Amino acid sequence: MVDGQGNLRPHWRGILAGLADGAAGSFGEAARRMERVFAEGVTSLLPGEVPGVGQASWRCDPVPLVLPAEEFDHLAAGLTQRARLMEALLADLYGPQHLVAEGLVPPALVYANPAFLRPCRKADGTASHPFLHCYAADLLRAPDGRWHVVADLTSRAGGIGHALENRRMLSRALPGLFRGHQLRPLRPFFELWQDALQHLAPQQRAPGSDGPAVALLTPGVHHRLWFEHVLLARELSCALVEPGDLSVRNGGVFLKTLKGLQPVHVLLRRVPGRGLDPLELDGGGMGVPGLLDAARHGTVKIVNEPGSGLAEAPGLAAVLPALARRLLGEDLLLPQPETRWPVDPGVLENLSGWTLHPATGAHGQGVVPDALDLAARAELVSRIAARPADYVAQQALPASVAPCVQGDALMPHPLRLRLFLMQDGSQWHILPGGLARVEAEDGSTLAKDVWVLHQDNARIAGPAAQRQPPLAIRRAAGDLPSRVADNLFWLGRHAERLEGAARLMRATLCRLDRGPLLPHEVAELATLSRCLHHAGLIAAEEQPSGAGTGPLREALLRSVQPSGAVVEQLGQVGRLVEAVRDRLTADIYATFTQPLRSLLAQAATVRGLDALEALLAEVLRYTASLAGVAAENMVRAGGYTFLDLGRRMERAQSVASQLHFALAQAPARVEAGLRLALELCDSVITYRNRYLGILQPAPALDLVLADPGNPRGLGFQLRAIQTLLADLGDAPLAAAAAALLAEVEAMPPAILASPEQAAATTTLAPAIGRVEAEVANLSDAVTRRYFALLPAAQALGGQMEAAPPATAPALTDIY
Amino acid sequence: MNWRVRHVTTYRYAETVDMATHMLHLSPRAVPGQRVLAEEIRCTPTPSRLTQGTDHFGNRVTWLSIDQPHDRFEVVAEAQVETAFPLPPPAEATPPWEELAARPGPEAVEFTFPSPMLPENAAARDYAASSFPPGRPVLAGLLDLNARIRRDFTFRAGVTGIATPVSQVLAQRAGVCQDFTHLMLNGLRGLGLPARYVSGYIRTRPPPGAVARQGADQSHAWVGAWLGPAHGWVGLDPTNNLVVAEEHVVLGWGRDFSDVSPLRGIILGGGRHWLDVAVDLAPG
Questions:
Q1: Above 50 in pLDDT, residue A403?
Q2: What domain of life does the UniProt record list for this protein's source (chain A) (predicted)?
Q3: What are the Cα distances from residue B65, in Å, to A262, A290, A788, B23?
Q4: Cys-Cys with B19: which of A403, B75, B109, B268 at CB 3.0–4.6 Å?
Q5: Is residue A9 within 8 Å of residue A16, measured between CB atoms?
Q6: Interacting residues of A147 by C-beta distance below 8 A, sequence separation 6+
Q7: Does some domain include residue A587?
């Protein structure tokens, strides 16, 4: 930030002024605004405190890291050279391996490196090129201002989605900050990238495929960087797929969608190379059997090539300067810290000033011996002395710092920069931005936006240096994967199940907290308890016997405690929302998840029935907003159809079961049963308005069974199911739903025609119970037909190559 | 000598397999001392796709996929092979073992490192070490180790599986050819000596008057040991205490069994399965 004389570097003046007054008022306010914007936008995209999903944090400092044009151009040239070097190195190691024979690459860093994927090698040099489509490097700035490369990322080069999102959030939180600065935009890089991916598609494609289909392959929702995969897939307009969504048929790679198998031509992988194909590699059984064979035959292009992570082994840095001369005939443009592999006795004697990394495997922050206590240091020394080739020592650079907001002031913190490059087939392009990270006081990591300034206007001569090639027309492989439809269907079902549980419990509670029960209340409570038991909310022995409701109260309270039925249901909803997050806009996602967290927190504090009732009211508000937001904001196609279908089927089943229990009474009690039926279908007021106070079976049944206008009635659900199935083009299943509807619609007129309405009403109970079973069958049919549950895969005949246990300190970088 | 190989692998499944993808290491490779005259692989059901190539080690590989539902999968691999493996040099003519351990050379160095099924194992190293006193010519030590394994261990089928670790073989002093080969590799690599896992066959019926060989009706395995650039590799069969010369046919090699498993696959469905393997290697 300051030059050698202690003066502020010129580009900093405007930014600091902007932060302190113009844009935000104060540094502290700027930081708070960032937190707010992140809470609304990004944090909601992070795996939150939803049960079953891990946690992550992502905070961004309002002060950007600013790179003047000249400084950045130097970095761009140096990293482009390094990318070319990595490419040449991989081409040799996955080809003829001259470098090993010549003694330039130590054999241990190849043959004992778990990142060397033997099935990806073509000894005759016919392996598909290029290996690298994207590349990233981590850099540290030395006190003299020179950037040093401390890590190469050749496998997946993660973090670029973060970089883009940091920029977006900063410009949303502090738009004033950008005024008066000529900084290079990030978007053109992503346009180029998207285009380059399309061009990677094999020239000869299967007949019937209409354009190159690009997909981003993610390990799935449980991966800690899943949200970055979502962001990236959106940015690059490609389908987000998991290994289980793909199938190799006849040498081609296909995505399993509702419309059947759709070809995929390019896979941008965010899955470790090892996890691509369980037939030839061991990623713990992960992957798509036959994928490597398909890639070898060029029907699909995987980027970066599986196995390209080999080049990022920290130990290789020791030989990179020599390799640059041998492979490129050039000296490295960017310095790197001195690196010793294997760790020599001289280093071991005095570890101060060194950072230690595992020689192979992923880059991490490394172990800083100076930060260890004596015992830990001695242990480290003996561990390394026993196996010096498993470690590499990298000279620690004195911390170079960048200003970060802390409280209301700026404090300097050590900074690490990651820059991203992409190769379009003819040349490398660098993202004019990046991801900077600082370690905050409390040890947490804080991100920073990276600004690359344009050259001063005066220095720009002639047209812009980089010509933009015309963008090709692209199509995304956007058809709904079966897995997504499956998850949406179950999200609909579980959200509705949650609502049904809350309604049932509320109806029960208002009879429990009124003191001594009247006889008709005892009967109603018995019916409600049967419903609760049927819904799995209470156990059989917890149903009240006579007026003894103690166990029932206990059971209801228990249902909102951890691992109680309601909490489990909230967890299911949370899990499924995470699983379909890439299908939801940020707003919808926030509506779905934020109340969920507070509901879980509130549930944990419930001790009495009053608090329980308040919680249930909140649950009902939540499910109502869920339904409302989905209905008002989701496009009526594919995804929403399944969400709604799940909800309608669940509601049809629960309404049918509740009516079944309500009507299964002695004829003398039918009136009480009907009253309860109206209550459970939220139809008491409607009935009263229509028929005043007179309760008769036929009109009441018409309202809860047949009335097409009652959204809580059974007929309404069946009609909706029929329409949704017809929308899917599924005539046979739609016809089955129509038959059920006709059966239900015929019930009220039959009762009306009956001379003895009360007695006839009670005989309906079993028929309505059968409707519940029929809807369940329909649901199974939908599941079988659309979600194509495949039988489990198993491996035959041979120990797979297992990932060796980490022999060295496991300090994996989160990116 | 000319050989006819017939190797039949049959999987039977309790439930229907909807889809299967397999990788086969069942085609003999050409090596110094071995010519492949004819060779064929037949599968039932007929694969919807079948491709062939070579792997990192230069072995011949067949990939195939089956899209039709099946409850039985059979592979018949047949080959005609001519072998005339050169005899190794006199043991005294080979370099001291420490020399090779110190400089294994680029063509052999890969086979000095631990591998998926053979992590470092101090007990195996110590077992091998007593065959390698200081300065002993490498082949002398190898022959001694080969003989000791035959003497100290009992050939017994069924006490080990394809994934049995060497530590268990050492403890129970019994196993099959794969186990003895892994033990020897583990020990040699522990000393820094390059050694590789060779997959292949041994003559099924002995010539009149000779003893029957162990492991003859199954796939066989032995050790390829490095004698230095002047003499190359030698095949040593610890299961029978033989130097590979007249009774073996090579399929391929790797670091351990996992690199050259004759047949592996990923199947969808299938439930329980039963495996049946029949091998016949006869002069012809």
A1: yes
A2: Bacteria
A3: 19, 8, 20, 9
A4: B268
A5: no
A6: A71, A75, A78, A139, A140, A141, A334, A417
A7: yes
- C-alpha distance from B45 to closest chain A C-alpha (Å): 15
Range of the domain at A209: 10-337+397-456
CA atoms within 13 A on the CB side of A723: 12
Work out the number of other CB atoms within 10 angstroms of the CB of residue A166: 26
Assess if residue A813 is contained within a domain. Answer: no
Place B57 in a pLDDT band, splitting at 50, 70 and 90.
very high
A292 and A119 in contact (C-beta within 8 Å)? yes
Domain at A387, CATH number: 3.30.1490.270
Using 50, 70 and 90 to split pLDDT, how confident is the model at A611? very high
Check if the beta carbon of residue B116 is closer than 8 Å to that of residue B166.
Answer: no
Q: How many CB atoms lie within 10 A of CB B187?
A: 28
Cis, bond preceding A342 (omega within 30 deg of 0): yes
Residues A151, A363 contacting (CB under 8 angstroms): yes
Rounded Cα distance between A680 and A768, Å, is 15
Query: Is A435 within the bounds of a domain?
Result: yes
Question: How many Cβ atoms sit within 10 Å of the Cβ of residue A236?
Answer: 23
Residue B31 has what DSSP assignment?
Answer: B
- A350 dihedral zone (left: phi>0; alpha: psi -120 to 50; beta): beta
Same structural domain, A300 and A358:
no
CA distances from A541 to A512, A538, A558, A561, B101 (A): 17, 8, 15, 19, 74
Asked if residue B57 lies in contact with residue B252, where contact means CB atoms within 8 angstroms, the answer is yes
Q: Name chain A contacts of B264, Cβ cutoff 8 Å.
A: 279, 795-798, 800
What is d(CA A491, CA B181) in angstroms, rounded to the nearest whole number? 54
Going by their DSSP bridges, the two strands A409-423 and A391-395 should be labelled as: unpaired
- Say if the Cβ atoms of A796 and B266 lie within 8 Å: yes
Residues A468, A283: Cα–Cα separation, whole Å: 40
A799 vs B22, B117, B273: nearest CB: B117
Residues 6+ apart with CB under 8 A from B82: B1, B2, B3, B34, B35, B37
Taking alpha carbons only, the member of A466, A428, A452 closest to residue A186 is A452
- What are the pLDDT digits (tens) for A672-715? 889 889 998 888 888 988 888 788 888 999 999 999 999 999 99
* Chain B interface, Cβ < 8 Å to A: 11, 15, 18-19, 21-23, 48-49, 51, 53-58, 63, 65, 67, 106, 109-110, 113-114, 116-117, 119, 162-163, 257-259, 261-270, 273, 275
**If we measure between CA atoms, which residue out of B159, B262, B284 comes closest to residue B201?**
B262
Of A677, A569, A579, A557, which Cα lies nearest the Cα of A620? A569
Give the pLDDT of residue A47.
Answer: 43
| Structure tokens belonging to residue B187 | 């020990």
Q: Which domains, ranges and CATH numbers included, belong to chain B?
A: 2-83+261-283 (2.60.40.2250), 91-260 (3.10.620.30)
Instruction: Name the nearest CA neighbour of A510 among A377, A613, A429.
Output: A613
Cβ separation B65–A793 shorter than 8 A = no
Question: Could you tell me whether strands A301-303 and A339-340 are parallel, antiparallel, or unpaired per DSSP bridges?
Answer: unpaired
Q: What whole-number distance in Å separates Cα of residue A106 and Cα of residue A111?
A: 9
